[in-house]
Amino acid sequence: MDRRELTPEVLMKAYGLGVFPMAESRDDPAIFWVDPRRRGVLPLDAFHMSRSLARHIRRGGYDIAVDQDFAGVMEGCASRPETWINATILDLYGQLHRLGRAHSLEVRCDGVLVGGVYGVALQGAFFGESMFSRQTNASKVALAYLVDRLRQGGFRLFDTQFITRHLASLGAIEIPRAQFHQMLEQALTVEGNFSAPATPSGQELVQRMTQTS
């Protein structure tokens, strides 16, 4: 797809239809649309909080922030040998962030960004794009805080696009495309609020997540 045809408005319309953009690699300027036959989702009431992760979160030693370093999170996600995040995607999602449509959740240790996740919010649906970790469990901590924020913010659907062993261990599942589109249609009838929820302490997070999972 021609970069000039891909705007934040086109991106948001695509998300509303259940499709998302990718590139073949960091150096490939072309963008293509994806609508997977099998879609990854993480049911918001089914996040798996393992005992080891709960202990890690209770122990603390990190700080959680929201939308403080969106570019840093995207760059962290793109800093791997193979990535679908090219310069066009970096630019477009940066624009979405400035418009209040794309969000990041960051994990810091001693002031250093060690993990995070970013995605796009549309009504009651959140489309997770990518996450990264530079420290053991950092991406799991980010995902736990993200799921809690989506719950508290009234979201109905957390789209993970694809499923990995890492995501499956945290409760993500695969569903057929048609079922995903039905869930998306329902999620678009409500209004989620990503920014309003307060960030809980580690103890509060574990208590809430273990009570409902």
Report on the structure:
- This protein has 213 residues and is of the alpha+beta class.
- The chain has a single domain, classed as 3-Layer(aba) Sandwich (Aminopeptidase), CATH 3.40.630.
- It is 38% helix and 24% strand.
- The chain has 8 helices and 9 strands.
- The protein has helices spanning 8-16, 51-59, 70-78, 87-98, 138-152, 165-169, 177-187, 202-212, and strands at 20-22, 32-34, 38-41, 63-66, 102-109, 112-122, 125-133, 157-161, 173-176.
- The model has no long low-confidence stretch (mean pLDDT 94).
Features:
alpha+beta; seven-stranded mixed beta sheet; 38% helix; Aminopeptidase
Quick take:
The protein has a single domain (3-212), classed as Aminopeptidase (3-Layer(aba) Sandwich), CATH 3.40.630. The protein contains 8 helices and 9 strands. It has helices at 8-16, 51-59, 70-78, 87-98, 138-152, 165-169, 177-187, 202-212; strands spanning 20-22, 32-34, 38-41, 63-66, 102-109, 112-122, 125-133, 157-161, 173-176.
